[in-house]
Design a protein that fits this description.
The complex is a heterodimer of chains A (114) and B (114). Chain A has no helices and eleven strands. In chain A, a hairpin with a 2-residue loop joins strand 5 and strand 6. Chain A is globular. By secondary structure, chain B is an all-beta fold. In chain B, a hairpin with a 6-residue loop joins strand 4 and strand 5. Classes of the chains: A mainly beta (114), B mainly beta (114). Chains A and B meet through strand 4, strand 5, strand 9 and strand 10 of A and strand 4, strand 5, strand 9 and strand 10 of B.
Chain lengths: 114, 114
Amino acid sequence: EAGVTQFPSHSVIEKGQTVTLRCDPISGHDNLYWYRRVMGKEIKFLLHFVKESKQDESGMPNNRFLAERTGGTYSTLKVQPAELEDSGVYFCASSQDGYQETQYFGPGTRLLVL
Amino acid sequence: DQQVKQNSPSLSVQEGRISILNCDYTNSMFDYFLWYKKYPAEGPTFLISISSIKDKNEDGRFTVFLNKSAKHLSLHIVPSQPGDSAVYFCAASDYEGGADGLTFGKGTHLIIQP
């Protein structure tokens, strides 16, 4: 069974540009999470989808970030316009039953904003 | 304001000896705790968890201890093996079985020396 996949693995953009990150969860997983780790800091929760609905978006830093999960399958996280402080690793995780132990993480997208 | 703290950025342990990774938390609402292991270029993977009704949980070479009054938990790995070299994240949640996003610490880089 394929794990959580994320695309791209790396992205380098200039300040002010737009970047869209994609996450494909494990097939059949209704719960999808986005997390971010800024260099040297903790992994921070951004938001949680249940199917196509945003269950909790309390961790989204500001309105430059937009997450979608149309059809309840893959999800995208768009940053527009990107700022220097947005650099970090963006992790996606998915879970079938919502239990913490069963949040399977993807390899992350490394975003560098110059 | 960090709610989960891992104050040791790195830890070096000789192969065969015990590795002890520490984690402190400040939020009294946290009721369920997890440890994740992360290799470079991969996402975190679940290792072991403990509920606040317990003070110890063991799984093979891995044991997690919880001192709720001190808001402190630790992960013991014995004996340490070269494959244990990774970054270990402590994470917390409000309750066991919840689907909410996790609150992570900054991680401790464990290096097992031959």
